[in-house]
């Protein structure tokens, strides 16, 4: 059997079904772990909740919007500024976060009045922003606040504003992926079709499932524009609220992250007949194939090929340089969402890295299917691991680097394994041809960092030469500070009246400075 039992989880036998080692000749029916299930009590899961999936992942990258969480302030604080969803309006959505700051008294007596007061206050505080999204949380969902009614009341009183309501309390789904689904469906039900688009090209797309992490979206949009394609809206990186209301006017939905946004693409196809085309912006070959597919759909393959030829000639030699030096290095691929399978094969083919493990905290079994299918025999696949299982996996696999989020990444650093932030990046963007070289450079720098190499040395038993070589030791030897002058009387005599060690330090400090300066 391919299932793997972690020693730290032997007391939770159900966890055995959530980890497998891909064996030789096995197909996905025997090598697929359980996934997207309710968290097993006692496993100390590190998952995000449905509210986090809706607000933090999908909603917040929308740039010209007041994102208001109706609940305790901790909910909005936990989903603020942890990813680099940059925007071209001076990063309004990153710099500001909004919450109604619900307290115990509001749970008892209701918080609808507080919500209305906060909505009006936020619009008055930022008069240039006329759009808002309100997110419910566990607390306000449990007490039954009618957020939709309050929002409509404000819109009736303030006709120039528009408000989107996302009822995505944290308990509504096994993980943050449930929140992805909720906000996708809510957006198309409430807002799509309420603004008519301005069409400026014969080729019009919605770029879906792209969140502009450190400028990823801008790289891809530049390629599309070079092909003469109009990007009507981006769902939701650097996306404009009103542009996203006009998604029904596109000719094609180009989907990047299927885990977070395939739901709205499928609904747009059902309601408006807009076809869906899945693409991949990571890696030379996947990106080239994606540009060709989009070009083929519109009959402009030659424009796509021109970009591919120019970019490949410019950046392929640099990628090959890194591949030669990264060949055979072992990597744990522990990211979120679609990067699990976007990266699994291409970092091996184009960078020479060996993927020895993959995991997902909130992905579905479809994500694991694609990820495992693209990994070599022997790879360890884990669903919803906790910190102890991650540490045990690192001890067993001994990877050279881990590609993951900040929380497990900082744990890896403590056991002297370098990591790159797969969620918010270290030095992005990572999409595009230049971006992929930048990714390879970051991996190279992490693995070959002298600091990380020194951190692996065990100096706990090394002899420390305290008797020579240190300026403080030479200073103490020169002044011949012996044990007999440590009494206060001797100290006063030695120091010429100073009756404390601090005064002695003041006397000797100039001497120490001179020693360090080589005087």
Automatic annotation (TrEMBL):
InterPro entries the UniProt entry points to: Nase/OxRdtase_comp1 (IPR000510), Nase_asu (IPR005974), Nase_comp1_asu (IPR010143), Nase_comp1_CS (IPR000318), Nase_Fe-Fe_asu (IPR011290)
**What name goes with this protein?**
Nitrogenase protein alpha chain
- High-level lineage: Bacteria, Bacillati, Bacillota, Bacilli, Bacillales
Q: Which cofactor does it need?
A: [8Fe-7S] cluster
Keyword Acetylation annotated? no
Similarity-based family:
Belongs to the NifD/NifK/NifE/NifN family.
Task: Provide the Nitrogenase/oxidoreductase component domain boundaries.
Answer: 49-447
Tell me if Kinase is a UniProt keyword of this record: no
Q: Which GO terms describe its molecular function?
A: ATP binding; iron-sulfur cluster binding; metal ion binding; nitrogenase activity
SUPFAM superfamilies from the xrefs?
Helical backbone' metal receptor (SSF53807)
Domain of life from the UniProt record: Bacteria
The reaction(s) annotated as catalysed by this protein in its Swiss-Prot or TrEMBL entry are: N2 + 8 reduced [2Fe-2S]-[ferredoxin] + 16 ATP + 16 H2O = H2 + 8 oxidized [2Fe-2S]-[ferredoxin] + 2 NH4(+) + 16 ADP + 16 phosphate + 6 H(+)
């Amino acid at each position: 059997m391919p299932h793997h039992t972690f020693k730290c989880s032997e007391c939770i036998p159900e966890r055995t079904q959530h980890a497998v080692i891909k064996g030789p000749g096995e197909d996905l029916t025997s090598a697929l772990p359980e996934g997207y299930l309710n968290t097993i009590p006692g496993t100390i899961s590190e998952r995000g909740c449905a509210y986090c999936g809706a607000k933090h992942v999908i909603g917040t990258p929308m740039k010209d919007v007041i994102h208001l969480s109706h609940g305790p302030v901790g909910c909005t604080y936990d989903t603020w500024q942890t990813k680099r969803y940059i925007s071209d309006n001076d990063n309004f959505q990153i710099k500001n976060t909004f919450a109604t700051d619900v307290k115990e008294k509001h749970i008892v007596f209701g918080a609808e009045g507080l919500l209305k007061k906060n909505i009006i206050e936020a619009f008055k505080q930022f008069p240039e922003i006329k759009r808002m999204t309100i997110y419910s949380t566990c607390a306000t969902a449990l007490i039954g606040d009618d957020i939709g009614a309050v929002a409509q009341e404000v819109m009736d009183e303030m006709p120039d504003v528009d408000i989107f309501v996302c009822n995505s309390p944290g308990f509504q789904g096994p993980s943050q992926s449930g929140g992805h689904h909720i906000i996708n469906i809510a957006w198309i039900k409430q807002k799509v079709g309420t603004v008519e688009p301005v069409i400026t090209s014969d080729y019009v797309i919605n770029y879906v499932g792209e969140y502009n992490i450190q400028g990823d979206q801008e790289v891809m949009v530049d390629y599309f524009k070079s092909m003469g394609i109009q990007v009507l809206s981006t769902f939701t990186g650097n996306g404009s609220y009103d542009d996203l209301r006009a998604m029904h006017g596109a000719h094609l939905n180009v989907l990047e992250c299927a885990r977070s946004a395939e739901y709205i693409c499928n609904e747009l196809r059902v309601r408006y007949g807009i076809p869906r085309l899945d693409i991949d912006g990571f890696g030379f070959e996947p990106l080239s194939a994606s540009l060709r597919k989009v070009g083929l759909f519109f009959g402009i393959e030659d424009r796509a090929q021109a970009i591919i030829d120019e970019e490949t000639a410019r950046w392929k030699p640099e990628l090959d340089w890194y591949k030669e030096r990264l060949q055979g290095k072992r990597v744990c691929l522990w990211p979120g969402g679609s990067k699990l399978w976007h990266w699994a094969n291409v970092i091996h083919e184009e960078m020479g890295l060996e993927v020895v493990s993959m995991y997902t905290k909130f992905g579905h079994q479809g994500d694991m299917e694609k990820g495992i299918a693209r990994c070599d025999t022997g790879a360890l696949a884990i669903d919803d691991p906790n910190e102890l299982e991650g540490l045990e996996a690192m001890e067993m696999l001994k990877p050279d680097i881990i590609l993951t989020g900040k929380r497990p990444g900082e744990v890896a650093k403590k056991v002297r394994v370098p990591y790159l932030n797969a969620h918010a990046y270290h030095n992005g963007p990572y999409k595009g041809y230049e971006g992929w070289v930048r990714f390879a450079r970051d991996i190279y720098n992490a693995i070959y960092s002298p600091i990380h190499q020194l951190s692996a040395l065990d100096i706990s038993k090394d002899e420390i030469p305290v008797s020579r070589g240190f300026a403080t030791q030479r200073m103490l030897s020169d002044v011949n500070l012996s044990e007999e002058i440590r009494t206060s009387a001797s100290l006063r005599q030695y120091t010429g009246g100073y009756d404390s060690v601090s005064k002695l330090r003041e006397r000797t400090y100039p001497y120490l400075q001179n020693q360090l300066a080589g005087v």
